[in-house]
Design a protein that fits this description.
Helices cover 59% and strands 9% of the residues. It is an alpha+beta fold. The chain has two domains: 2-168, no CATH class; 170-295, Homeodomain-like (Arc Repressor Mutant, subunit A). It has a four-stranded antiparallel β-sheet with strand order 1-4-3-2, sandwiched between helices. β3 and β4 form a beta hairpin. α5 crosses α7 (170-203) and α7 (170-203) packs across α9 (221-232). The N and C termini lie far apart (76 Å).
Length: 295
């Protein structure tokens, strides 16, 4: 996190180690890589506000960064910056981006060792990290999220306290993003299962197919089948039959309808199949069940 004037407010341990590597490189390379990189980070932080919340940029030595501004009461005072990230293998990065800047005979092995802490991510993963940062920043831009007032202009201090609890490793951030995705998927799946059960309850007396229900919830049959199995540990057909058997039990206990009528009314076109399914779920056939529960 950096202030508008470029003053570092909070730095993770990996970033501190990266700055130490830049300072080490500056001993061998003309041009002040550390100063150039710092300037590019400050510039990227400012651009993130101009471009509406998220800005991607490369440092002078080809490392990927992303930034999002923290705005309170319409004032941009702090910027959260992510990176550095490598978008290609380390050896390729040294060859393509640093080779021309290094003196002849430079110890590539030592350089590789010092740069090995920089994570290597695909563009998709880097974009996920940037999105996660933007989500956090949107929350942090609202003082009420932290339960404080910004009357004294001390919001940055609270932001530092909040950020001190955020995992410092990229792996931990990715794990957090993955967990949030799992929670989001679970909630979506719960809504799908509720819709499936509602559809079955409203239509169990007629013919119900997986294709019918899938169309109703706007999913493919194969994907819907996977969701049902994942969330209920049951098959689609089992859900349908359980709903039908539950209604059949009610009719057997509280009406004098014949077994054929009950089978037809609960969606079983075949009497023998109704008896077979009923016995599988209740451990007795419909006639036995009625005698036992009405005696």
């Amino acid at each position: 996190m950096i202030a508008l004037d470029g003053t570092p407010l909070y730095e993770t341990e990996p970033y501190i180690a990266f700055k130490q590597t830049l300072a080490w490189l500056d001993r061998f390379v003309d041009g002040g890589l550390e100063a150039q990189t710092t300037a590019s980070v400050v510039s990227g932080a400012m651009q993130s506000y101009r471009f509406g919340g998220r800005f991607f940029f490369y440092s002078p030595i080809g490392l990927f960064h992303f930034a999002s501004p923290i705005v309170t009461n319409g004032r941009h005072s702090v910027t959260a910056v992510g990176g550095p990230i490598l978008m290609l293998p380390l050896e390729e990065y040294i060859s393509f981006d640093l080779e021309g800047k290094l003196p002849e005979g430079f110890d590539r092995g030592e350089l590789a060792q010092k740069l090995s802490a920089i994570p290597v991510f695909t563009p998709d993963v880097a974009n996920t990290l940037a999105e996660q940062l933007l989500i956090n920043v949107k929350h942090l831009s609202d003082p009420s999220y932290l339960g404080i007032a910004d009357e004294e202009g001390r919001h940055s201090e609270y932001l530092l306290a909040w950020f001190s609890g955020i995992p410092s490793s990229y792996e931990a951030i990715l794990n957090l993003a993955a967990e949030q995705q799992r929670e989001k998927a679970a909630k979506k799946h719960e809504r799908v299962i509720d819709a499936v059960k509602k559809y079955i309850e409203q239509n169990y007396s007629g013919k119900i197919t997986l294709d019918d229900v899938a169309r109703n919830v706007y999913l493919s049959p194969s994907y819907l089948s996977k969701i049902i199995k994942l969330r209920t540990d049951q098959s689609f057909r089992h859900l349908v039959n359980m709903t039908r058997i539950t209604e059949a039990v009610r009719l057997l206990e509280h009406t004098d309808k014949s077994l054929s009528e009950i089978a037809f009314q609960t969606g079983f076109e075949d009497h023998s199949y109704f008896t077979k399914v009923f016995k599988r779920h209740t451990k007795m056939n419909p006639s036995e069940y009625r005698r036992k529960h009405r005696s």
